[in-house]
Amino acid sequence: MEPQGTELLSALAAGNQARIILEITTSHSQQQSVTPLTLGLAVAANQTQGKLICIRPSLHSCYGLEHVVEHENKHEHDCNANGSATELRVGDPCEVVTDIRNVDFAVIDCTNLDANRLRLLSDKLHLNPRGFIIVANNILHREQGVALVDQILKGKR
């Protein structure tokens, strides 16, 4: 993602007072662990006194994220009531998101998600009924984008 895109998404999340921010990465690569986007979303969560929840498919893809979580936890005056502005979850995104409620802002990396997995993921997301923003990154096939938008609009009206 271009640096300007990262800044835009961070500002968009903060400007919309997003309290629950999701970053879902489906790549198993260590190169995708801590990205400028992760840091930008962590800053946005800090500004809104919200929470960034980073979802990674495996521990291998979490390299470096523990430093972001540790840093956020040291600044308790900047954190939410739970004591942490950043949370790390590992596993299948379709299973890990089931207990997250009222998502205001989500960035989904669609690299390893086919249309069926995107439908399942969007069905499991519990979005804020007052409004939400979803950014889908790395959509490689038209079917992926159509599946995501179609499922969200169908199930969340």
General description of the model:
- The structure is a single chain.
- A 5-stranded parallel sheet has the order 3-2-1-4-5, covered by helices on one side.
- The chain has one domain: Vaccinia Virus protein VP39 (Rossmann fold, 3-Layer(aba) Sandwich).
- It has 157 residues and is an alpha/beta fold.
- The model is unreliable at 71-82 (pLDDT under 50).
- α5 runs parallel beside α6.
- The longest helix has 14 residues, at 142-155.
- The protein is built from 6 helices and 5 strands; from the N terminus they run αβαβαβαβαβα.
- InterPro entries: DUF1442, SAM-dependent_MTases_sf.
Brief sketch in words of this structure:
InterPro entries: DUF1442, SAM-dependent_MTases_sf. 40% of the residues lie in helices and 17% in strands.
Number of helices: 6
The counted number of beta strands is 5
Indicate the CATH topology.
Answer: Rossmann fold
Rg = 15 Å
| CATH architectural type | 3-Layer(aba) Sandwich
Which strand order spans the largest sheet, edge to edge or round the barrel? Answer: 3-2-1-4-5
Average pLDDT figure:
80
What's the level 1 CATH class?
Alpha Beta
Order of helices and strands: HEHEHEHEHEH
Sheet of most strands: 5 strands, parallel
Beta-strand residue fraction:
15-25%
Question: Helical content, roughly?
Answer: 40-55%
Tell me the distance between the termini.
30 Å
